[in-house]
């Protein structure tokens, strides 16, 4: 059982670890699958203590990802610098410091990492995942063994900086895209699929399919191999019927003619298709603007019979215009494949860190 101690209106401490059972199921917005985890002797993580729970995956082992990140840092010798310079029995207090404005993400994951390194470390946060932090703000602290804090530092920051960068861009895109919903894609860092998608949720976006297993997505190569739009839909309908499977089905279209073909097939047949992707129907203009007339026409043709998803040429500058066309979703690979990490640090001497930060205009 996790422990939650309220210290101020925005300050709380948490102590938890990964599940002691072989598998652990997390709630998911769009579909239910489970996440596996290696058992430990420590208390079970309380998802209720998390501001935003992670998405789910049937085989993803978050504990193994944390262990891999720590082991690639430690190698076969451990932290030789700490061994040389930091007394084994020294205890310190280190503070998290924001060096730029953005949405903080990865706090719950940081708790897991600190717990993996040393369960006796006391971690206290003044913000929660999804909150906006400002340059110069101290938003958390960790107390305990100096060696263990320094060992955990870089792994914690690597995850938090990446997740916060994703969450910050997602927040901006989601607000601009309204009333459409912003989605990421499978263009995530290898091995970090769940972590990247978790950051999107923290930033206010929604998750697209987790992988190849939880949604049928008929893309251009599938269409080419199957011999066209109609043949590919027929093949999927037959497969799902034979396997007695119920899942969402999306088909990619690149022209208005392909949209018409999907609509014609659906008017003549019972189909499993639930969403039509409108790919690259946002046309860049020489002046930096975009022409969304083709996209708007496609949305009008579909007229609410299917969910719609705009894809291609989606940026922070173009997403507002795309969102005003009436599409249901807008997907952007840039949320995760071109992320700019948010600059944050963990400092024992915070006064010196702030002094240096002001000199370099980073705090």
From TrEMBL:
First-level EC class: transferase
GO cellular component: cytoplasm
UniProt-listed Enzyme Commission number(s): 2.4.2.19
Pathway linked to the protein: Cofactor biosynthesis; NAD(+) biosynthesis; nicotinate D-ribonucleotide from quinolinate: step 1/1
Domain Quinolinate phosphoribosyl transferase C-terminal span(s) in chain numbering: 166-347
Recorded superkingdom: Eukaryota
GO molecular function ontology, one term from the record: nicotinate-nucleotide diphosphorylase (carboxylating) activity
Quinolinate phosphoribosyl transferase N-terminal domain residues: 79-164
InterPro entries: Aldolase_TIM (IPR013785), NadC (IPR004393), NadC/ModD (IPR027277), Nicotinate_pribotase-like_C (IPR036068), Quinolinate_PRibosylTase_N_sf (IPR037128), Quinolinate_PRibosylTrfase_C (IPR002638), Quinolinate_PRibosylTrfase_N (IPR022412)
Keywords: Glycosyltransferase, Pyridine nucleotide biosynthesis, Transferase
One of the Pfam families matching this protein, by short name: QRPTase_N
Gene Ontology biological-process annotations: NAD+ biosynthetic process; quinolinate catabolic process
Family per similarity comment: Belongs to the NadC/ModD family.
NCBIfam families per record: nadC
Name of protein: nicotinate-nucleotide diphosphorylase (carboxylating)
Source organism: Cinnamomum micranthum f. kanehirae
Lineage: Eukaryota, Viridiplantae, Streptophyta, Embryophyta, Tracheophyta
């Amino acid at each position: 059982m996790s422990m939650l101690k309220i210290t101020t209106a925005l300050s709380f401490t948490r102590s938890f670890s990964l599940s002691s059972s072989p598998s652990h199921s997390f709630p998911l917005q769009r579909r239910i699958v489970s996440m596996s985890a290696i058992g430990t002797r420590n208390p079970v993580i309380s998802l209720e203590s998390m501001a935003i729970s992670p998405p789910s995956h049937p085989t993803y082992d978050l504990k193994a990802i944390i262990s891999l990140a720590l082991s690639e840092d430690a190698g076969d010798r451990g932290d030789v610098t700490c061994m040389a310079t930091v007394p084994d029995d020294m205890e310190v207090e280190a503070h998290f410091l924001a060096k730029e404005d953005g949405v903080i993400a990865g706090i719950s994951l940081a708790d897991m990492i600190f717990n993996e390194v040393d369960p006796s470390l006391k971690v206290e946060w003044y913000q929660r995942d999804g909150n906006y932090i400002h340059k110069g703000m101290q938003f958390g602290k960790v107390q305990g063994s100096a060696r263990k804090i320094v060992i955990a530092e870089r792994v914690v920051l690597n995850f938090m900086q990446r997740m916060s960068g994703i969450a910050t861009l997602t927040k901006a895109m989601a607000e601009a895209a309204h009333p459409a919903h912003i989605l990421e894609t499978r263009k995530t860092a290898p091995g970090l699929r769940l972590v990247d998608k978790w950051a999107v949720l923290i930033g206010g976006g929604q998750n697209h399919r987790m992988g190849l297993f939880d949604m049928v997505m008929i893309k251009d190569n599938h269409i080419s191999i199957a011999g066209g739009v109609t043949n590919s839909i027929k093949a999927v309908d037959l497969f799902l019927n034979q396997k007695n499977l119920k899942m969402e089905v999306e088909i990619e279209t690149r022209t208005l003619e392909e949209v018409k073909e999907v609509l014609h097939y659906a008017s003549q047949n019972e189909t499993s298709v639930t969403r039509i992707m409108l790919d690259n129907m946002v046309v860049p203009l020489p002046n930096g603007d975009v022409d969304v007339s083709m996209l708007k026409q496609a949305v009008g043709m579909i007229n609410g019979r299917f969910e719609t998803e705009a894809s291609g040429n989606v940026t922070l500058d173009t997403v507002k215009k795309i969102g005003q066309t009436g599409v249901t979703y807008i997907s952007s690979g840039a949320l995760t494949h071109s992320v700019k990490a948010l600059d944050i640090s963990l400092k024992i001497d915070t006064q010196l860190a702030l002094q240096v930060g002001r000199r370099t205009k980073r705090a």
